[in-house]
Amino acid sequence: MDPVQSITEINEEHILESHMYIFEGKDYSKETSQGDKKAYDHLLEHQKALLEDLSQGGRVLRNKKNVLLMTANMVPSKKRKLSPEELEVQQKKIQEAAAKKARLREEKRQRAAEIEQQKKIALWEANHYQSCCLESEESSEEEDEEEEKSQLDLEYTDPEQTSIKYIVGDVTHPIVGDEDAIIVHCVDDSGHWGRGGLFTALGNRSDQPKKMYELAGKMKDLTLGGTLLFCIDDKESRNKGTDLLALIVAQHRDHSNNLSGIKLPALEKGLKKIYQEAKKRNASIHLPRIGYSIKGFNWYGTERLIRKYLGSRGIPAYVYYFPRIKASSSSKESIVATQQS
């Protein structure tokens, strides 16, 4: 080699030595051998076969070495736009699948409910238990029309026909004539009788409330919207007429002993059942100011339900305010207010 080389020759040698396609002194960038072409074609065929297998639902190979990345020249084509007819068929299939799923879910729920009901009946038979829960009655066309009419009456009828009478007194000793009286109280579904307030007052009036409620809890007969009805004349009674207690299960107590507020849908179900019973007995309804001690409770929603299912249908409804200061017997028996709808 000539000891003196030009700058051009040195640069060419440097480029040649550092070329990325040079391997063991051979430049592979100038030409592609038949072996390279064959290997490349084999890779493409293998990739194509793999993609076809995957598109037909085949399993992905567990050996990751055999899974090749998609090459740039094999980008999947755009999804074909469906025609209106195809879109309609697709939408129909989606709706049918959703309906089937809902039907299966409902069938599963019904089977579970039937199994639970069978267990409950077996428990009742083993303990000779007879439920005092009011059953829901199917509404007749006449009653449906009556309900629609009562809904309109809340806005357009005579206030005297849908009024709730407010009384200062003790709801456990209803102020009535000779008719039957149904006292209403809301409870939770735990089966544990409470203390204080109306719970204690009812316990003083009769031994039946605590006994019947806790027995219903043991027999798994307490569900939201359920209503227990029984007589409470064991300790004291009137010459004419019967006093009954209706316990509406309107609150839920969870396993952590957390108590929910009064659930208006459950209360509504209970009032519907009480209306049917009051209609049969020609009885009056006597309630405390339900939920007055519960923070944020919607008393006006409750008031509207009482008017809807009792007042507007001709059932006398009385709401009692218990006096904080002991009042005279004459003031206890006076009706202090009547509110119009």
TrEMBL record:
The answer to whether UniProt assigns keyword Transmembrane to this entry is: no
Please provide, alphabetically and separated by semicolons, the GO molecular function terms listed in this UniProt record. Answer: ATP binding; DNA helicase activity
Q: Give the start-end ranges of region Disordered.
A: 134-155
Query: Locations of Acidic residues compositional bias?
Result: 135-148
Chief location category: nucleus
Example GO biological process: chromatin remodeling
Where does it live in the cell? Nucleus
Q: Which InterPro entries match?
A: ALC1, Macro_dom, Macro_dom-like
Q: Could you tell me the superkingdom of the organism this chain comes from?
A: Eukaryota
Gene3D superfamilies the UniProt entry points to: Leucine Aminopeptidase, subunit E, domain 1
What family does the entry list?
Belongs to the SNF2/RAD54 helicase family.
List the protein's name: Macro domain-containing protein
Which organism encodes this protein? Micrurus spixii (Amazon coral snake)
